[in-house]
Structures are given as structure tokens and as C-alpha cells.
Amino acid sequence: MTAHLRELYRTAYAADPAAVDDITVYEWFMDNTQHVFGILKEALPEREKSVLQAFLSPVPPYRLYPEEADHRWYRRLFQTADEMKKSYRFVHFAIKQAVDDYFAMQEALRTLSEAPAAVVWFDDVSGVVVLEGEEGEHVVKADVQAAVEALQVDFLIDMTALLGRVHQPDVFPQHASTDERRLLHSLPRQERVITVPEAATHALFQQAPKPMQQLAASIFTDPVDEELKQTIAVYLTCQMNASSAAKQLHVHRNTLQHRLERYQAATGVDLRSFAEASAAYMTIAAEHRDS
Amino acid sequence: MAELKLDHVYKIFDGDVTAVSDFNLNIEDEEFIVFVGPSGCGKSTTLRMIAGLEGISDGDFYIDDKRMNDVSPKDRDIAMVFQNYALYPHMNVFDNMAFGLKLRKFPKEDIKKRVEEASDILGLRDLLDRKPKALSGGQRQRVALGRAIVRNPKVFLMDEPLSNLDAKLRVQMRSEIIKLHQQLKTTTVYVTHDQTEAMTMASRIVIMKDGVIQQIGAPREVYTYPENVFVGGFIGSPSMNFLTGQLENDLFKIGERSLKIPEGKLKALRDSGYESGAEIILGIRPEDLHDEQVFLDTMPEAKADVSIDLAELTGSELVLYTKIAEQNIVAIVNPRSNIYQGDQIELGFDLNKAHFFDPATEQRIKG
Ligand SMILES: Nc1ncnc2c1ncn2[C@@H]1O[C@H](COP(=O)(O)OP(=O)(O)OP(=O)(O)O)[C@@H](O)[C@H]1O
Ligand SMILES: [Mg+2]
């Protein structure tokens, strides 16, 4: 079949997504042998397009995996796992707005590591970057944050990401991915990037029964206003370092000290107690989760 | 080149959180507009509506007379700069700057030319091969700016781009951004909660509180004529002093003390219907309080005896902390004045430069 089409469309036919300059000017299809090919959009009138779509599976742009590693990881995540030798680490991501150029987005995502990383999409607004071996061990949260901000600026989208744990090759990728992908949803609103331990802490709290959450809110957040809540959140994320918290909040140290005292007076919470401080932090963060 | 217009714009989250309320603003071509206000006042939300990252709940937004409400962000010809170093960690400086252009299918030669031009402007020419990890904080921030500049967009949107830099670097980058704007003249909307940044950078400042614009004006204008108590207190450091007292004939009475109100100010109060006995708020800047004998002699009816709680010599100025009738006052005087904690001094009030505010509405009484 594809041979016929190749003859029919000639120069408008592309046999391989990886071999074209601009992936976005083609419509992509998959035949029954799972071979992906493209036809130039401008060479494809609406009627012909409908006919081809009826006989072949249209391939959405985010499903075009130009790299062999993408295919390998697609199979590992959606079909059958093969034997792996290297450890691996996922960065799951979600975007709020769909993009035009998935190919360019993939190219940018690959630069999360020194050697090009594999990218697999779950749908048009979420996916995973896979970092193998040492690449995975070297990546830190700040790298992911920088890349996510760069992507947001370049593609003008909202993006969030979860930096996963390093998994040994004997861990089943589908399981690891499913668990971590779920954790991405526990991200507090003001954060863009979160790590597994951070996400797990938030998820734990969010999954507590409603009456428990209400009890926590009545202790840690209800008695105070937004400004105080935010102050406490920043203070605690700054490891209770008053100078850096004051700097981040753009207030004088004395103002910060005064607010901390007001918070403790209003709630009866002792922020020097690790248990109380961490519960306060989780309660405040949970209120600020995207609904 | 672009003009922006926000017309009765609202943002309501989840049906009940009103983050921005009835926002009206015309931004002229080549302007450098700064949104300033405390945390949570809606600065970023407004910027994100301009970018198209956030839908507009009500009202209209125009760029050059074209309604933009439903235009997708990438078709608005804007470039954003955020507070962190938005750089791809494993791309070198050149590729980082080039990426947005590659994405938009610019020809290779054009990309090279634009990146080189931008890197000359930003002093990055020798760093084009470096990876972000091998750059200083200031250099990274410059690359982040470069990524926006190469696009040569209609509008720059910057959300606290300097807030992660240390104080010294922040001051330096501040003036670099101003210079950059003088050179490129691209219409810019800049968000900060630092009033000094707003005062030093803006062609006009938009001061916001709780999602509502409090005042729009040139830095000097909002500093000299604050519309209300909030603006007076927010703009300027140390903050404007506010003293609640009574109008009594031509005097402003605070406890035992009384200050003579100048003719013009008195007329304004009378014209606005404030009679003897009315409670009003006096707002006066620290630098409009005086300890010099010349001032005290020329304005003998506008001074008060105070005792100094604290005298801080910062170098270029002497900051005095005192109270009148339990209300705090900060004064800035000549650092050569010999005034110390515990001293009793006479403090002169330059009421010609002061303002009166209504205690109920907190609006400035204009007459
Ligand atoms: N996605 C959202 N859902 C619900 N409420 C939101 C959302 N985003 C922002 N808000 C609320 O809208 C208000 C304005 O937020 P915004 O981020 O615009 O403030 P800001 O002036 O930029 O503050 P900051 O100086 O802290 O950055 C805040 O009360 C915030 O909690
Ligand atoms: Mg903000």
C-alpha cells in the first residue's frame, strides 16, 4: 500500500519522520505494519485526507518518535519490557495548553541531560522524559526547574514536572511510571517542579480523610490571613532561615519576626517543634493546590 | 512597536476568587510600565492575562486595536522573562538564545545575526559557547533576557526578573534593563513588589492592592501626589508618616500639639466640606520634616517638641524615630545634625508638601 502512495504523492511523501526538516508540514499515518509515513499537508486536499484516514491510522504529532530510544521506551511503558542494563530516572511533565510543534518540544526536553534523553508522550498534554544511567544520577531539581521555565517562555505554556527517583534496571518501568505520574498531581499551585519525596509528603496529606484535613486547617490555617500563611510557608521552605525568608518575602527581618510571633500567638503552634512545623507546612501547601 | 489596552478586565478564579477587578489601562508605545503592589494583589495574574496564559473572565484586551482575548499566546508576539534562570541546562548560550527562533522557523543566517546582535548588546559575545553551569548569576540572567530580545517581539513581559539576584547584582541589572529599553524601545510591562525598582525603572507605575488599581502615574507623580493612604505608605522608603488628628480653625491638632495649616491646603479642606472638629489624617514624608534652625524660624507655627526614641546614622542621612500622641514618626535629616537618642528637639513640618486624607475613605482630600 505505501509503495502505491509513495508513487502517487512522489516528493510530497515522507518515509521517515526523523528524516524531514519540518515535521509539522506533514500529515502522518501508520499502516498495518506499524510503519509511519507522512504526506505534505499542502499536497493533501481535505477529501483525500479523509479517505486516507479511513484506511490508515492517523498519527498525532506527539506520537511521532523520531529517535530509536523513544520507541524503546514507548514499548517499555506501553507494551512489554525488555531486559535493561542501566538504571533509569523519569521526569514526568504536564502542560496546560497543547503546543503546535511537538517535535521542537521534544528536542528541548531531550536537553534535560547531557546525552539526548528519550521522550514519550501519554497524550497531547503530558509525557515523560527518560534519563538513563549516569545522566539520571546527575540531574538535580534546579536543572529541571530551569528547563521548565525555558520551555514555558519558548512555547508560552504553563508546565509542571516531577523529578522521579533513580530506578534500578530490575524495576518494572510501567509500575515506576504509574506511581510517579500520579504524584505529579499533588503539586502545590505556586510550584512548577517537585521531587518524589516532596510530592509524597503532599500526597500523604491530601489523601487524609476530609475531617482530618478540616481539623488540620482549623488548627494551622483558619485562624490567620493569607499574608501570614504565605509568610509561614516561605519561612518553612527556607529551612526556617529568617534572613533568606525575609529576603524572599521582601520584608525586613523584624517584620518577619513579628509575623512569626503573630502566627504562633493566633494558632498556638510552636514552629520550633519539627512535627508541628511540618504539619503547618503541609496544611498550607494543600490549600494552594490547583483544583 | 505596540500599544496595549486593558478595558474593564476581570479575573475570577474558580467562580469566586476575584484576583483582578475592573482593571483599566492604556499602555502607550515604547512605555516601560511597572505593576507594583504587595504579594497576592494580582500583578502576575494581570501579566498572565496579557500573555494569554490566563483567560480573561470579563472585559477586553487589545494590542494595537486588535482584540486579543481569544488569540493564543504564541500569536500575540510577546516575549516573557521570569524570575528564575529560564535556561536549558545542557544547551550552550548560543543555542539557548537561538532556540526560540528555531522554533519559529527563522532562517539559520537570520538566527545567527540576531543572536550575535543580542549578545553584543548584553556583553555575552565571549560566552556563546558556555553552558549555563559555567556562568555567574548575572550572566545567566542576561542570557535569559537575550532569549527574549532575539525575538524582537512587540511586547516584553517581565515577572520579577531580578528577585532571585543578590542586592548588588539587582541594582546593576536594574540599570542594564533600563539601558536596554532605551536602546530597543520595546513596550514593556514589568512586575515587581519592590517599590524602589518600580520608582527607578518605570515610565509609569500601576499600584495595585487586592486586585484593584490604586493609582496610575509617573514615579514622581505617585510619590508627590498619592491618591490614598495605601499608595502614600507603599511608595517611598522609609514610608510616609500618617498622623490622625483634628481640624480646628486653621490648625491641625494632634493631642496637645498643633500645626498651622497653610492657606491653600486649608481652602482645599474647607472646599471639600471639612469643618472645624473634623477628624483628618495628615500624610507627610520623612524628608519633609525638618530640624534646621532656618526652617524652624521661617515656619514657627508648624513645629512640635518631640523626644527622639532612636537616631540612626546611615551615612548619607540621619533617620530619627519619634512619636507624637502615641503615633510613630520617622524623619530624615541632615547627617551632620547632632541629634541622639533621648534628645528633646523641635521638629518642623513642611505642610506645603504634606497631604490630608479622609479617615473613612482614606482618599486624599484634593479640594
Ligand atoms: N490558579 C489560581 N487559582 C485560584 N486562585 C489563584 C490562582 N492564581 C492566583 N490566584 C490568587 O489570585 C490572587 C492574585 O495572585 P497573583 O499571583 O496575581 O499575585 P501577585 O501580585 O503576582 O503576588 P506575588 O507578589 O506573590 O507574586 C492571589 O490571591 C492568588 O492566591
Ligand atoms: Mg507574582
Characterization of the model:
Chain A is an alpha+beta fold. Chain A is 48% helix and 16% strand. Chain A has three domains: 2-59, no CATH class; 68-201, Reverse transcriptase/Diguanylate cyclase domain (Alpha-Beta Plaits, 2-Layer Sandwich); 208-290, PucR C-terminal helix-turn-helix domain (Arc Repressor Mutant, subunit A). Chain A has a five-stranded mixed beta sheet, with helices on both faces. Chain A has a four-stranded antiparallel beta sheet with strand order 1-3-2-4, with helices on one face. The mean pLDDT of chain B is 94. By secondary structure, chain B is α+β, with helices and mostly antiparallel strands. Chain B is built from ten helices and 20 strands. Chain B is elongated and about 75 Å long. The longest helix of chain B has 18 residues, at 167-184. Chain B has a six-stranded mixed beta sheet, with helices on both faces. Chain B has a five-stranded antiparallel beta sheet with strand order 13-12-11-14-20. A five-stranded antiparallel beta sheet of chain B has the order 15-19-16-17-18, with no helix packed on it. Chain B has helices at residues 43-51, 93-103, 108-121, 137-149, 167-184, 195-201, 219-224, 229-234, 263-271, 293-298; strands at 4-13, 17-27, 32-36, 58-63, 66-67, 78-81, 155-159, 187-192, 204-209, 212-217, 241-248, 251-254, 257-260, 279-284, 289-290, 303-313, 318-324, 327-333, 344-349, 355-357. Chain B folds into two domains: 4-234, P-loop containing nucleotide triphosphate hydrolases (Rossmann fold, 3-Layer(aba) Sandwich); 241-357, Beta Barrel (OB fold (Dihydrolipoamide Acetyltransferase, E2P)), CATH 2.40.50. The A-B interface holds A 22, 96-97, 100-101, 104, 108, 111-114, 143, 145-147, 149-150, 152-158, 226-227, 230, 248-250, 291 and B 14, 38-40, 51-53, 72-74, 78-82, 84-91, 96, 99-100, 102-103, 105, 132, 147-148, 163, 193-194. The complex binds adenosine-5'-triphosphate and magnesium ion (MG). Adenosine-5'-triphosphate binds next to strand 2 and helix 1 of chain B. Chain A: This is PucR-like helix-turn-helix protein.
